[in-house]
Structures are given as C-alpha cells and as structure tokens.
Amino acid sequence: MTEPAVQWRKSSFSNDGTCVEVADLPDGGRLVRDTKLGEDSPVLRYTAAEWRAFVAGVRAGEFD
Questions:
Q1: What are the boundaries of each domain within the chain?
Q2: For the chain, how are helix, strand and coil distributed in percent, rounded to 5?
C-alpha cells in the first residue's frame, strides 16, 4: 500500500536505539514507523479511534 505524503516526527519519548516516528493523517489516524529503519521501515496505520484508545491506555498506565 502506498502511504500518502506525510510529515514524520520523532516521538519525544524516543532514546538511543528505541525510536519511533509518527505521522498525522488527514482523517485523524496515525502512521507509525521505526526511526532506525527510516524509509525501509514497515509502516503501521491506525484509525483515529484506535489511536485515541492507545493514547488513553498510555495515559492510564496500561503499558507501564
């Protein structure tokens, strides 16, 4: 699948060797990829609802 042209940004929680990049989609969804692999990284696509659920889980400490 060809992804739309997007602006990638590195996660503020990234550190040496464990980096991810996120890109916003026009419909509110997000794309996520591994910074180390750059253009060669597989890209994960999340719907707006999936992303909201993920962020809510992070804020609630579900992944600590």
A1: 9-59
A2: 25, 25, 50
